[in-house]
Amino acid sequence: MRTRPLGRTGLAVSTIGFGGSPIGSVFRPVSQTEAEAAVRTALDAGINYFDTSPYYGATAAETALGRALRGVPRECYVLATKAGRYGGPATFDFSAARVTAGVDESLARLGCGHIDLLQVHDLEFGARDQIVEETLPALQRLREAGKIRGIGITGLPLTALRAVWERARDHIDAVLSYCHLTLSDDTFLPWARELRAAGVGVINAAPLAMGLLTNAGPPAWHPAPEPVRTAAASAAEWCRARGVDMADLALSDALARDDVDCTVIGFASAAEVTRAVAALTREPDPALSRAVKAMFDPVRNVTWPSGRAENN
Questions:
Q1: What is the predicted pLDDT for the residue at 204?
Q2: In whole angstroms, what is the distance from residue 282 CA to residue 40 CA?
Q3: How many domains in the chain?
Q4: Which of 1, 51, 79, 97 has its Cβ near the most Cβ atoms within 10 Å?
Q5: What is 21-61 written as a DSSP string?
Q6: Radius of gyration (C-alpha) of the chain in whole angstroms
Q7: Which residue, among 184, 200, 192, 194, has the nearest Cα to 151 in the 3D structure?
Q8: Pairwise CA distance, residues 223 & 43, whole Å
Q9: What is the dihedral of CA 2, 5, 9, 11, to 10 degrees?
Q10: Distance from C-alpha of 239 to C-alpha of 246, rounded to nearest angstrom
Q11: Which pLDDT tens digit goes with each residue over 111-162?
Q12: Angstrom distance (rounded) from CA 285 to CA 248
């Protein structure tokens, strides 16, 4: 599988990234055997980028991934996790003390000597000043201590991500955006190109828009507003009538892009990994893509709020 440099980190990451939240049994129960099969299938296919968080499954995802990678030479994979969002009553804590302790906890669960990319998780839920003046400097100190190699930021509102990057760009090596580079939303594209030109790694996550762009439709909890859900349902019906799975179309479209370094997809099984890898080798049908994208035109780039009101 093709790899690309992740900005200025010195890391080379696979086109497809392994999203680790599903193996934390976030969406359905996933056994350790299933998790290990998914990870091994990914490694065999050339996927080397693994993304997780202590928040996923209340640390279950990190634990499962660490066990699945046990015995794999450290140079064979790029490991990314996050800090600032956790389980329990204190879901968000961006303080220097908590993120510093959190990195040690993640290292223990993952069973590795260092984390390649440590990302501030969903920074729109924090105070911008704290992220810039306390969280990121704490991560810089962890980098100087050799516990992490690169620093990233993640979140939904592009306004929040960009505002932090503008104030702390010297600290930030990579930006992960989700649900903003899909069949229905391309708002991340201009900034993604700008970031790459500046030497910042660009990661696109959730190319299926958290299940929205599937024939089965989004889960009940999906936060998309009703007009977007209605457009997605119409597009799914159109695809089904033609024997097309909208998820395959969405994956092929996302993976054909050269504007990002890595596209992260959540995997719960070896079969899901195999399906995504097949999408990588399949040429998108331009006519189908145009037709489905046109169905989203009335609601194109319509998103939903996340985090603090001032961050949206």
A1: 98
A2: 22
A3: 1
A4: 51
A5: SGGGTSSS---HHHHHHHHHHHHHHT--EEE--TTTTTTHH
A6: 18
A7: 200
A8: 33
A9: 20
A10: 6
A11: 999 999 999 999 999 999 999 999 999 999 999 999 999 999 999 999 999 9
A12: 11
CATH number of the domain encompassing residue 132? 3.20.20.100
How many C-beta atoms surround the C-beta of residue 227 within 10 A?
11
The model's pTM: 0.97
Q: Which of 49, 56, 77, 86 is flagged as catalytic?
A: 56
Region label for 210, one of left (φ > 0), alpha (ψ between -120 and 50) or beta (otherwise): left
Q: Say if CB 47 and CB 275 are below 8 A apart.
A: no
In angstroms, the Cα distances linking 232 to 184, 215, 293 are 9, 9, 10
Write out the residue range of the structural domain in which residue 234 sits.
3-311
The verdict on whether 56 is a catalytic residue reads yes
Residue 226 and residue 9: Cα distance in Å, rounded? 40
Q: Which residue has the tokens 């599903």?
A: 22
pLDDT score of 260: 97
pLDDT of residue 281: 86
Which amino acid does the sequence have at 159? Answer: T
Taking the C-alpha atoms of residue 90 and residue 179, their distance in angstroms, rounded to an integer, is: 26
Residue 73 burial by Cβ neighbours in a 10 Å radius (0-12, 13-18, 19+) = exposed
| Pairs from 285-290 (Cβ < 8 Å, separation ≥ 24) | 285/249, 288/242, 288/244, 288/249, 289/183, 289/249, 289/253
What stretch of H or E contains 203?
Answer: strand 201-205
CB 312 within 8 A of CB 161: no
